[in-house]
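Fold this sequence, please.
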Amino acid sequence: MTKLIWVRADLPADYEDRKRVVSSALEAGLTNIILREEDEALQRLGRFNALTMHDDKVLRDGETIALRVTVASSQDLEDAYALKGKTEKLIISAQDWQVIPLENLIAVFQGSGTMLLAEADGVDEAKLFLETMEVGADGVVLTIDPSQFGDVAILLSGRDAMVELTALPISKITPLTIGDRVCVDTCSLMQPGEGLLVGSQSSCLFLISSESVESEYVASRPFRVNAGAVHAYVLTASGQTRYLSEVRGGEELIAVDQEGRARTVVVGRSKIERRPLLLIEVDGGERKYSTIVQNAETIRLVTPDGPVSVSDLVLGQHILVRLEEGGRHFGHMINETITEL
């Protein structure tokens, strides 16, 4: 889900101009920057991922992590297609994007293991590349004026990424004994009905609301999601899952509201504490899915009408989940039959 943004600070002829590109990128929160080999001193401007480019190869610490292809003809396009699955990342530079079918490139490279990045020389072009065919390119390489970096950062933070949510009926609510649960404190203030996607099975993640609703007993904590038991999966900004027990400060997760609008949130900290637990199961027709949360009034799952405390949930009530076919291996989506009970 997270788009990769690289900045080319190696293009300006003047050193001071290259320095301004790096400074502007850092101010906008863009931290993947391509430098000239002789500009190592620019790394003292701040902490970022310093890359270099040599003969259309992008290097990090001497290792090739991306190839760059200039596409100006149908033969160039075929040459680009031939690199599918053979490089970690592929940068496409086109002399005329009105001629080069970006849709075809996205379709060919989707699911190939090769990330597709497009060079963009304007904010509108970057927006187009990130949204083409809804999925968009995996990222963009910015060759724009550094004064526009902030606009790109705003564009990314405001992208209307969507997650498809399904309402399923509750088939079981069972109080459990004491167990370890994870409370995730993010660096963002969330709205009522906005929270994290968590579940005992990767194929069904429940929308657990942030503590953004005032309670009779405690003040609201709109940055916090009391997410569930340590074994549960949570959806990350990369589209992979992690165990809640593995979530650490500085990592990025996906926050979703009841309409399915998604955004990236940074984890500030996570807390594991022993608390009474509650199993909630939903009926997916051919199979059932569950999640385990703390048994407390402040924990809310999200219904089509908004967040509801677990103490008020009833059998047959519909709650929002994200369904997914296939399975997960080390958090990565794989196309195989896996049954998680």
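The chain has two domains: 4-159, 166-334. DSSP finds five helices and 23 strands in the chain.
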